[in-house]
Amino acid sequence: MNNLRSRESVKFFGSPVEHENAELLLRTKTDIDNSISKILKLVKNKNRSAEDGSPKHSRKETQLVGLIEDLHNQHQSLYALYDRVTEEFGKVISRRRNKRTSDSSSDSDSEYFSSEEVDGNKRRSEKEHYNVSHYNTPKHEPYTTELEEQLTLLVKEMENLNQKKGNLELEVESQTHEVKQLSAKNTVLHDQIMDLELKLKEENGVVSDLQAKLINNENQAKSNVANFMQKLDFVENQNKELEAQMERKGEETSQLVVQIENLNENLAETRSVEENMKEEKERFLARMKDLELELEARSTEKNELEEKLSNTSYEIKQLIDENKTLQDRNRELRTSLTKKGEEISSFLREHENNKNGASMEALALKAKVNAMRLELDTLQEQKNKLEQQNERSQKEHAESLAKMETLNANLSDQEKTIERMCEENKQAKTISSKLMSNQRLAERKMEELAEKFRKKMEDNIRLLHQRLHVAEQVNNENKNSCKMTKQRYEEENKVLGEKVATYEEELRALKEDADPTPSQVTLYFPNEFELVGLIELDLKVEEHKEYVMTRVSKMMREVDFAKDWVNKRNGEVRELKDNVDNLKDSLNKKEEQEVLLREKVWNLEAKVSKEGGEKLNLTKAVSQLEKKVAKLEKNMKEKDEELVSLGEKKREAIRQLCILVDFHRDRCNYLKDVVTKSRRVKNKT
């Protein structure tokens, strides 16, 4: 309606200057209306924020001050324009008053219309009268009808102009009334501007305090984040130390388990060795019985051989005596033969001397000689037989002596083997005593290691509980501080969000209501920069809050992980304690069994000490032990290789986990960047 009135008032002015002045009036009026509506909105928002108790930013106040200054400038320009229009209007009226003529109809019309309209109507009527008088001449009679039609149209237009004139007068009156209202509003707005300037100063102080508080909060948040990072680094170092300690403990437990397994294997080996020794002792006892039987048989054979030797020696003595008697007899026969030969030779000589006389005696002597020769032959045969018998007896005696020597050598060898077996038995006793002492030392070492391990585990568990308690306290403090900072940041974010919402509403209103004039562009350009700065500050605060929350959540996850890890380690330590207790019980049982076995072994050693022959068994046992030791060394090497491979696998798994963690961390950072960019785009839109 105001625009219609202003347009009709524009039609009322005839000259181009009046038209430009009307356009300026219309433009200034719309600017004043827009600025007044904006000021009213800002005042309403300020009242709402004052009722809510939320802190205000300096940007709204500067915007309000700018709008008020703009309104003041527009008001001054309106006054100047009004003065200029009134001057031009007075000049036009004075010119038209000089030209107008006195007429009765004009007096009646001047009572109803204004002076400007009267002058315009007069000029129109004079023109019409001149045209009518001009066209009523005889020269232009064909055009009279057209002129009459034009006159009727002009009359109608005149009536329409009169109506428009009335409307314009009403509009001028309404505009004058509006100008008075605007002047009253202007005074009220001046008063409000003064009040707003005072409030602006107060709010500037509040905003400066809030900025100082915000800077202090940011510094405090940075210091808290630095403290949290230091605490987190300290907790990470503690976790690393605990992991290293637990790894060392795990290695110690694995070593103890390996030692216990080795001891169990040694016990099993000693049991197997004892069983083998039992079997070997039984075999040795059977062998000793066999040897005793052989010794008895050899002793009987020796006795028989001695009897045979004694018999043979007696027979040899008899044969020697017979040989001596035969040799004596042979000698006697030889002497007798020599005597008889001499007698025969003497007899032959005598016979030769007395051939003829002694033929009968010679025959008789020949017969005697032949008989003597036969006797000599028989005696020679007996002698040969006796020599042969003597040689056979000597051979048998030599054989029996050789047998005796072999028997004596066998007996000496058996005695030596018995002595050697006794010595080996003594050595086995010493070795068994050494093994027993080594086993006792191993048991003592096991007990000492178990005691040390138990003490270390108790100390470590105590330290872990203390560190867990300290970590829980630090965690609770961090949680409380994080909650406080989170609440504070949430409150600040709420306030900043409300500010941003109000600023966005104001921006929308400003963009919707404001015309793209250079003055308004220059007016709102810095405010838009301030809004962008506030949006960037809000984004920075949100990013900082998200960073702090991510760090705090990460620290909480790490603390929970450390708790779970410590609980797992405590469970493993309990299991190890149970295993140690079970091993102790099994060791006690094994000690009892070993005591029984030792008693049995002592009894067996008392039996075996008389016999000997354990060197072979011990050498076998030693060879078996060496083989087992070699096997154990191979197993240890294989286990070491398996441990090395497991360590490499663990390192590979840790490396892959680190790669996954880095990947997820990069992905989270990328998603955060995408979210922040999308937020910035949304905030810009």
UniProtKB/TrEMBL annotation:
Q: Which PROSITE patterns match?
A: NAB
One Pfam family it belongs to:
KIP1
Q: Where is the composition biased (Acidic residues)?
A: 106-118
InterPro entries, per database record:
NAB
| Coiled coil start-end | 144-513, 566-656
Where composition is biased (Basic and acidic residues), the residues are: 119-131
A single GO molecular-function term is: actin binding
Record's keyword terms, sorted: Coiled coil
For the region Disordered, give the residue spans: 94-140
Stretches assigned to the NAB domain: 9-89
* Record has DNA-binding as a keyword: no
Any one GO CC term of this protein is:
cytoskeleton
Task: Output the PANTHER family linked to this UniProt entry.
Answer: COP1-INTERACTIVE PROTEIN 1, MYOSIN HEAVY CHAIN-LIKE PROTEIN
Q: What is this protein called?
A: COP1-interactive protein 1-like
The gene it comes from is LOC113855752
